[in-house]
Amino acid sequence: MSNEYQLDTKEFHSLKTASYKVFEVIAKRLNVQTAYVTKRGETAMTVLSSYNKKEEIIPEGYSVEYGGTYCRLIISNKESSLTTTNLMKDELTRELEVSSQLQVKGFLGVSLTDLNGHVFGTLCVMDKEEKEFTEEDIDFLKSIAGVLSHMIELDQTQYNMALLNVPIIPITKGVSILTIQGIIDERRAEKILDNVLTYGTENDIEYFIIDLSGLVIRGNNFPQVFGKLVQSLQLMGIETIITGITPEIAQREVENIALTNLKTKTASNLESALSYIGFSLVESP
C-alpha cells in the first residue's frame, strides 16, 4: 500500500474546504443523500470530509479496512469508477461487511488522484434509495474529482514547504537547539546539513542539542544525513547531544550502526541535555 501522503487527515485543509463547497452541488446534481471524500492509508480507507443531507450515513473519520471497502473496487477498476443501483444486492458489494452496516443502496464512486496520477483516495456518493447513474453522471463526478486533485497538490506543496524549514533555536551563547521534524528527503537533508554547519560556524557554537522527537521515519530507513551531520559538527569542534529519541525510533534503530555507532551524548529531554552542559532551567518568580 502506498504511504506517499504523510499528512494527517486534519491537515488537508484546502481539500476539505473545497470538498465541502462542492458536496451540495454534487448532491443536488445527482439527487443523492450523501457525498464524501476518502483518503487511502496503509491499511484502511478513512473518510476525510462528508456531506449528509438529512440523516448521517457517513461521518467524518469513519474508517474501514481497505480490503473490505467499496474504494478498493473503485481503485482496482480499470475505469476508476464503480456504480450500482443497490449495494446490498450487487454481486461485487453485497458480501462486504460495510454494506450490511450502512444499509444503503444507490452508489457511485470514482478514484481521486493527485496531479501526477497517484491514487489519493476516492470521491463517492450514496443514497438509501436505489439509483441509476448514467455515463454523464460518472463523467460529472470525475470532473469534480479533477478539481479536487488540485487541492491535494496544494496541501502537499504547503506541507513540503513547511518541512524545508530548519528550525534552529539559540539558547545562550555557544548553545543552540536543532529540532528535526517531519520527513527528511534528499532535498531537505541537503538543506539541513548546509544550514546547520553554516550556522555553527557563524555563531561560534560549542554545543548543538539535536531533538528528534518530531522526526518521521519513512519505511525502515533512518535518515543517513543525521550521522553525517553529527560527524561534521564534531570535526568542527562542536559537541552534539541528542534528545527526543522516541520508543519508535529506539526500537527501529537499536541495531542500526548509523545511530548506535555515533560517538555522541544522548539525553532523555532538553533539561537533561542542558544540565550536562552546565545550565539549568529556572522558573521565573
Briefly characterize the structure.
This protein has helices at 13-30, 70-76, 97-102, 135-163, 186-202, 225-235, 247-253, 257-260, 270-277, and strands at residues 34-40, 44-52, 63-65, 81-84, 106-113, 119-127, 168-172, 175-182, 207-215, 239-243, 265-266. It is an alpha/beta fold.
Structure description:
The chain contains nine helices and eleven strands. 33% of the residues are buried. It has 285 residues and is an alpha/beta fold. The longest helix is centred in the middle third of the chain and has 29 residues, at 135-163. Strands 3-2-1-6-5-4 form a six-stranded antiparallel sheet, sandwiched between helices. A five-stranded mixed sheet has the order 7-8-9-10-11. It folds into two domains: 9-162, GAF domain (Beta-Lactamase, 2-Layer Sandwich), CATH 3.30.450.40; 168-277, 2-Layer Sandwich (Transcription Regulator spoIIAA). α1 (13-30) packs antiparallel against α4 (135-163) and α5 (186-202) runs parallel beside α6. The protein has helices spanning 13-30, 70-76, 97-102, 135-163, 186-202, 225-235, 247-253, 257-260, 270-277, and strands at residues 34-40, 44-52, 63-65, 81-84, 106-113, 119-127, 168-172, 175-182, 207-215, 239-243, 265-266.
